């Protein structure tokens, strides 16, 4: 992406700065930060971004609290010093070209929950759909000094918990990044409430590993696909759900790195055939790196689709109606790990 002229940037800066001010206020209104905690950055070009200054009060942010900096964090325009989380923001913008927005906040219920627990029990379907397995990164310092674990975690989920510190969320624009923080905070408060009342979320029925189950497969090999078919067709719970919800459809998965496509034909939950039909009712597309993470339990397919990590073609409302069946299917996929 070409670097725009600095003068033209200055003329168009108000819109971007006003947007930063608006979403900073929204984080404050939702009680996701207090005092001078939290910081925001917004990518303008390959080597230019807006970032909040050190000791900015995001709930009362002004445009003059937002600095224009280069890729190294050198201030080009504005007064004051860059946020103490400079390395976190610059590192994320370097690593994720599609992440224009980086939000770092300190939501209290999220911080409290993950101080005590490493996993979250989901109460609502929305939370499960959009959040999935939220990575939790241990923190020993007031600012993020070990960047690699955070970047690796953000490859799998667009929101990450920094234990005893806060959260960081990324997105193509403000709304999806903000929504992840808001949703996680709400879910943590609800889960803490139910725990305090002596109620625990219903535990997900895991897919049992059959005795003598084979080891890792070559990704998208014929043996791999046969394993996926066998897992579904030999699982009594998957078959029960398939009949209950009338799952009759075609679901194709595509490796965009190699162009390989395999389509599973379902009739009342049973897979009756596999071919290379790309014009299936549902098509899930991802590159090889992402598929490896899906089959090796690092990424949940539903969450990846909602966060834009993978592409899903098809009627999402219809897939939602078959959620229980596909959830079971994706759980079974975990028993087909790849090399």
Structure report:
The chain folds into two domains: 6-196, Class II aldolase/adducin N-terminal domain (L-fuculose-1-phosphate Aldolase, 3-Layer(aba) Sandwich); 222-333, 2-Layer Sandwich (Nonspecific Lipid-transfer Protein, Chain A), CATH 3.30.1050. The longest helix is centred in the N-terminal third of the chain and has 24 residues, at 6-29. It starts with 5 loop residues before the first helix and ends in a 6-residue tail after the last helix. By secondary structure, it is of the alpha+beta class. Helix 8 (236-245) packs antiparallel against helix 12 (323-333). 40% of the residues lie in helices and 19% in strands. Strands 4-3-2-1-5-8-7-6 form an eight-stranded mixed β-sheet, with helices on both faces. Strands 11-10-9-12-13 form a five-stranded mixed β-sheet. The protein contains twelve helices and 13 strands. The protein has helices at residues 6-29, 86-95, 108-116, 125-130, 148-156, 174-196, 222-233, 236-245, 288-295, 301-306, 316-321, 323-333, and strands at 39-45, 48-52, 66-70, 75-77, 101-105, 136-137, 159-162, 166-171, 249-255, 260-267, 270-275, 282-286, 311-313.
